Amino acid sequence: MPLPLIALSLGVAGASALGGAIGSAANTAKARREERDWYNKASAFANGLRYENLLETVSGRAAMKQRNEQRRDNIDALNNRAVAGGATYENQLAARQMENETDSRLTSQLLQNDEARRRAADQMQMNLDAQHSNFMQNSYMQNAQNWQAWGSAMGGAAMDFGNAALLGKQAGLTNRQIMGLDKV
Fold it and tell me: How far apart are CA 77 and CA 123, in angstroms?
Protein backbone atom coordinates (compact mmCIF):
# COMPACT_ATOMS: atom_id res chain seq x y z
CA MET A 1 0.00 0.00 0.00
CA PRO A 2 1.51 3.39 -0.91
CA LEU A 3 2.42 5.51 2.07
CA PRO A 4 -0.03 8.36 1.35
CA LEU A 5 -2.83 5.78 1.48
CA ILE A 6 -1.49 4.48 4.79
CA ALA A 7 -1.56 7.97 6.25
CA LEU A 8 -5.05 8.53 4.83
CA SER A 9 -6.32 5.23 6.23
CA LEU A 10 -4.83 6.09 9.63
CA GLY A 11 -6.60 9.43 9.58
CA VAL A 12 -9.90 7.87 8.51
CA ALA A 13 -9.58 5.18 11.22
CA GLY A 14 -8.92 7.78 13.89
CA ALA A 15 -11.73 10.06 12.72
CA SER A 16 -14.18 7.13 12.52
CA ALA A 17 -13.28 5.95 16.01
CA LEU A 18 -13.59 9.45 17.43
CA GLY A 19 -16.90 10.05 15.63
CA GLY A 20 -18.26 6.75 16.94
CA ALA A 21 -17.20 7.57 20.49
CA ILE A 22 -18.75 11.06 20.33
CA GLY A 23 -21.99 9.73 18.78
CA SER A 24 -22.20 6.99 21.37
CA ALA A 25 -21.60 9.46 24.20
CA ALA A 26 -24.40 11.71 22.86
CA ASN A 27 -26.82 8.77 22.67
CA THR A 28 -25.80 7.65 26.15
CA ALA A 29 -26.49 11.14 27.53
CA LYS A 30 -29.88 11.16 25.80
CA ALA A 31 -30.73 7.74 27.25
CA ARG A 32 -29.68 8.92 30.72
CA ARG A 33 -31.96 11.97 30.48
CA GLU A 34 -34.88 9.82 29.32
CA GLU A 35 -34.32 7.30 32.11
CA ARG A 36 -33.94 10.08 34.71
CA ASP A 37 -37.23 11.65 33.59
CA TRP A 38 -38.99 8.28 33.81
CA TYR A 39 -37.46 7.64 37.24
CA ASN A 40 -38.58 11.05 38.54
CA LYS A 41 -42.18 10.47 37.38
CA ALA A 42 -42.35 6.95 38.80
CA SER A 43 -40.74 8.10 42.05
CA ALA A 44 -43.24 10.95 42.40
CA PHE A 45 -46.07 8.44 41.90
CA ALA A 46 -44.65 6.09 44.56
CA ASN A 47 -44.24 9.01 46.98
CA GLY A 48 -47.81 10.07 46.28
CA LEU A 49 -48.98 6.60 47.28
CA ARG A 50 -46.73 6.62 50.31
CA TYR A 51 -48.05 9.89 51.73
CA GLU A 52 -51.68 9.64 50.63
CA ASN A 53 -54.14 10.31 53.45
CA LEU A 54 -56.11 7.18 54.33
CA LEU A 55 -59.37 9.07 54.63
CA GLU A 56 -58.86 10.73 51.24
CA THR A 57 -58.70 7.41 49.41
CA VAL A 58 -61.86 6.10 47.78
CA SER A 59 -61.76 2.89 49.79
CA GLY A 60 -61.18 4.74 53.08
CA ARG A 61 -64.05 7.17 52.51
CA ALA A 62 -66.35 4.34 51.41
CA ALA A 63 -65.55 2.25 54.51
CA MET A 64 -66.15 5.21 56.84
CA LYS A 65 -69.41 6.16 55.09
CA GLN A 66 -70.65 2.58 55.25
CA ARG A 67 -69.76 2.31 58.94
CA ASN A 68 -71.48 5.62 59.78
CA GLU A 69 -74.66 4.44 58.04
CA GLN A 70 -74.49 1.09 59.81
CA ARG A 71 -73.90 2.77 63.17
CA ARG A 72 -76.84 5.14 62.66
CA ASP A 73 -79.14 2.22 61.71
CA ASN A 74 -77.96 0.13 64.67
CA ILE A 75 -78.51 2.99 67.16
CA ASP A 76 -81.98 3.64 65.77
CA ALA A 77 -82.83 -0.05 66.11
CA LEU A 78 -81.37 -0.10 69.62
CA ASN A 79 -83.42 2.91 70.67
CA ASN A 80 -86.59 1.39 69.19
CA ARG A 81 -86.01 -1.91 71.01
CA ALA A 82 -85.29 -0.08 74.25
CA VAL A 83 -88.54 1.85 74.05
CA ALA A 84 -90.60 -1.16 72.95
CA GLY A 85 -88.99 -3.75 75.21
CA GLY A 86 -88.24 -1.73 78.27
CA ALA A 87 -84.45 -2.20 78.09
CA THR A 88 -82.54 -0.91 81.04
CA TYR A 89 -80.02 1.86 80.84
CA GLU A 90 -77.24 -0.73 81.30
CA ASN A 91 -78.55 -2.73 78.30
CA GLN A 92 -78.45 0.41 76.18
CA LEU A 93 -74.89 1.16 77.32
CA ALA A 94 -73.79 -2.40 76.53
CA ALA A 95 -75.26 -2.14 73.04
CA ARG A 96 -73.54 1.21 72.48
CA GLN A 97 -70.28 -0.30 73.75
CA MET A 98 -70.61 -2.97 71.04
CA GLU A 99 -70.95 -0.22 68.44
CA ASN A 100 -67.82 1.47 69.79
CA GLU A 101 -65.91 -1.82 69.59
CA THR A 102 -67.07 -2.26 65.99
CA ASP A 103 -65.78 1.24 65.23
CA SER A 104 -62.48 0.38 66.87
CA ARG A 105 -62.13 -2.82 64.80
CA LEU A 106 -62.86 -0.90 61.60
CA THR A 107 -60.29 1.77 62.47
CA SER A 108 -57.72 -0.91 63.27
CA GLN A 109 -58.40 -2.69 59.99
CA LEU A 110 -58.13 0.56 58.01
CA LEU A 111 -54.83 1.38 59.71
CA GLN A 112 -53.47 -2.09 58.92
CA ASN A 113 -54.49 -1.69 55.29
CA ASP A 114 -52.91 1.75 55.22
CA GLU A 115 -49.66 0.37 56.64
CA ALA A 116 -49.63 -2.40 54.02
CA ARG A 117 -50.22 0.18 51.29
CA ARG A 118 -47.37 2.33 52.57
CA ARG A 119 -45.04 -0.66 52.73
CA ALA A 120 -45.96 -1.54 49.14
CA ALA A 121 -45.19 2.04 48.10
CA ASP A 122 -41.83 1.85 49.92
CA GLN A 123 -41.04 -1.43 48.13
CA MET A 124 -42.01 0.17 44.81
CA GLN A 125 -39.62 3.04 45.54
CA MET A 126 -36.82 0.63 46.43
CA ASN A 127 -37.38 -1.27 43.18
CA LEU A 128 -37.31 2.01 41.24
CA ASP A 129 -34.08 3.00 42.98
CA ALA A 130 -32.51 -0.37 42.12
CA GLN A 131 -33.59 -0.10 38.47
CA HIS A 132 -32.27 3.45 38.25
CA SER A 133 -28.96 2.45 39.83
CA ASN A 134 -28.58 -0.54 37.48
CA PHE A 135 -29.31 1.63 34.46
CA MET A 136 -26.76 4.23 35.51
CA GLN A 137 -24.11 1.58 36.22
CA ASN A 138 -24.70 -0.02 32.82
CA SER A 139 -24.61 3.38 31.17
CA TYR A 140 -21.27 4.26 32.74
CA MET A 141 -19.91 0.82 31.84
CA GLN A 142 -21.00 1.30 28.22
CA ASN A 143 -19.36 4.72 28.16
CA ALA A 144 -16.11 3.22 29.45
CA GLN A 145 -16.26 0.46 26.83
CA ASN A 146 -16.87 3.03 24.09
CA TRP A 147 -13.85 5.07 25.14
CA GLN A 148 -11.78 1.90 25.48
CA ALA A 149 -12.76 0.93 21.93
CA TRP A 150 -11.80 4.42 20.75
CA GLY A 151 -8.45 4.15 22.51
CA SER A 152 -7.86 0.72 21.00
CA ALA A 153 -8.71 2.00 17.53
CA MET A 154 -6.38 4.96 17.95
CA GLY A 155 -3.65 2.71 19.35
CA GLY A 156 -4.10 0.34 16.42
CA ALA A 157 -3.90 3.23 13.98
CA ALA A 158 -0.72 4.47 15.63
CA MET A 159 0.75 0.96 15.49
CA ASP A 160 -0.12 0.69 11.79
CA PHE A 161 1.50 4.06 11.16
CA GLY A 162 4.58 3.00 13.14
CA ASN A 163 4.81 -0.25 11.21
CA ALA A 164 4.50 1.62 7.92
CA ALA A 165 7.25 4.01 8.99
CA LEU A 166 9.48 1.12 10.06
CA LEU A 167 8.93 -0.72 6.80
CA GLY A 168 9.57 2.51 4.90
CA LYS A 169 12.85 3.04 6.76
CA GLN A 170 13.87 -0.54 6.02
CA ALA A 171 13.12 0.14 2.36
CA GLY A 172 15.41 3.17 2.51
CA LEU A 173 12.71 5.84 2.28
CA THR A 174 13.02 9.29 3.83
CA ASN A 175 10.59 10.59 6.43
CA ARG A 176 9.00 12.86 3.85
CA GLN A 177 8.54 9.92 1.51
CA ILE A 178 7.06 7.78 4.30
CA MET A 179 4.57 10.53 5.13
CA GLY A 180 3.67 10.82 1.46
CA LEU A 181 5.02 14.36 1.07
CA ASP A 182 7.60 13.38 -1.55
CA LYS A 183 7.25 10.88 -4.36
CA VAL A 184 8.88 7.52 -3.93
Answer: 46
